[in-house]
Structures are given as C-alpha cells and as structure tokens.
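Service request form, structural biology core

Requester: graduate student, group of Dr. S.
Request type: structure prediction, single chain
Budget code: on file
Notes: please return the result as structure tokens.

Sequence provided:
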Amino acid sequence: MLSVSQVSEILDKLNSVFFLHNNSEITFEVNPDDATPEYLRSLKQAGINRLSIGTQSFHNSELEYLGRTHSAETSIKSVLAAKYAGFDNVSIDIIYGLPESVSGDPNYNIEQALIADVQHISAYSLTMEPGTILANLAEKNKMLPPDEELSVTHFRLFMKLLVEAGYEHYEISNFAKQGYRSKHNSAYWQNKAYLGLGAGAHSFDQDRRFINTGIITEYIRGILNDTPSRETEVLSINDRYNDYIITTIRTSDGCNLKDIYNQFGEEFGSYFLKNIQPLIEKQLIISEDSHYFLTENGKLWTDSVSEKLIIDADHML
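Core staff response, request fulfilled:
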C-alpha cells in the first residue's frame, strides 16, 4: 500500500536515527496483486533486501475459498517478478488444511515453490480465529471449516518433501535454505528484545511488553507530547519462563536446560525436568545433551506439549 517514495522516506529516517548494519535484513511484505516488476525493482533500489510474498496457494480453488483477489497465475508471476527484480532472498506463504472439496493437490503447491527456487517458505495450517470473517461464515454454515485430518496429512507431506529438497525445518511453520532463516521472526523465537514503531506496534524489552495505541491520531499526539500512548505489561518470572518455553519449543534448536537454570533458577529447571519426562516417554520429545526437541509426531502436538511444560495459575513457582 506504500509508494516507493514513502518506503524510501521510512528507510532514510531509520538510517538517520539508528545504526543499521550492512547485513541488516530489511523485509517488505507484498501481495501478489501489487508485485509488479517496476514496483519490485524500485523497492530493491530503495534498500529492501528481502521480500515476503503472500501467495498462500497456487490453486485457484483455494484462493477463492480464502477470499483472495489474486489468481494462481498471479502468485507464480509475483515470485518470478521478485527474482527478475534482483531479490535473492524471497519468502512465500502457503496455507494448507482447507476443506477437501476446495483443497488442491498439496504436492503441486510444493512443486511450484521448488520450481520458483525461493529461499524461505512459511506453511500455515488454516485456522479460523474467533471474530474473523471466515469464522463467522463457518458458524453460519456458509463456509466449510478446516479439515483437521487433511491438515495433518498435508503437514507431514510438507515436512517430508521440503526437507528432502534441502530446506531446514527450523520452526514449526517455517522452512529455509541454509543461511536464510528469517532474522526477524527468529528474534521472537529466541526471546530477544524487539522494537515496534508506529500505531498498533508491539515492543518487548525482555521484562515488559508494550502495545502502542492503534488510533493513529492518538499515537501521533502522544509522540509529539513525549507521552507515548501505549499499554505496558510487566512480566513476572513465571511469564518469562512460559514465554521461553512456548517460543523455543517450536524451533529446531529446542529448549536448553542450561538456559532455563541460568535465566530462571533451579526451581524452574526442576519443574521442567519433571514435566518433560512423560513427553519423552510418549516420544513427543527427544533430548540431546541439555537440549530438548520435538519429534516429528511432537510437531503435530506443539500446543499440547507447551501446555504440559508451562506454569499455570494453579502451579505458581
């Protein structure tokens, strides 16, 4: 939605306020409809060095179900246009687990991604969040809900074929060629601090979370008055432990017992060891040295695994 001159203005301002390393990852999200060769070439010249393209599917039936305006052909053309524009770091999104009646062959989605030779693929199972248009339509029986059994089958296929093709399955929903993990998203999963700028943006300093107001005029007024309009959440040690578990267990690096002891103390380390053991016995988790990882079956039950390891309000440490 931004013009190239607006993108340049933002990048110029960032460079004037912060020191950006030469290897900084500067990602820009684009819809296939907007990914014209001219626009992408101009983005590259402006300083964008990584593109995230919301292809979602290479099947028209799936795109129509999702309410997307672009076609499968446009999805393919947008990826090709990015490569022609000189981008050598391109990520695409693929959604799977749609109802069988509209679901296309997942092999074809994977084949197209491999033919396009993109560096990064984010594969998401279709979920209908309460209050969204898709969820409301499903509740009124105007739209078929996601197919959970099909979702599992497709996810296993993605894991098998993409890993065989040389992609690293470094996070539950993300696959990357060697050296092309998303630096931005990896910061979240590694529990690093991050700064969000603009209305509605989130920030995290490892002790607190900040959420800027989503009302633009209110946000600007707060900045001008040097009184930012935002909500602040101070995290307890339990909150920080839970965040660590929920984020790291999703990654191929897993949870590190040494980190748990160092960051949270012996009581938390003992709690983790006690609760991880049943998951190891169920072959949902494997361990290597002090690292604990999800097995292939465990990746199908990530949320359930996390629930067994985090501390709820009834078991405060």
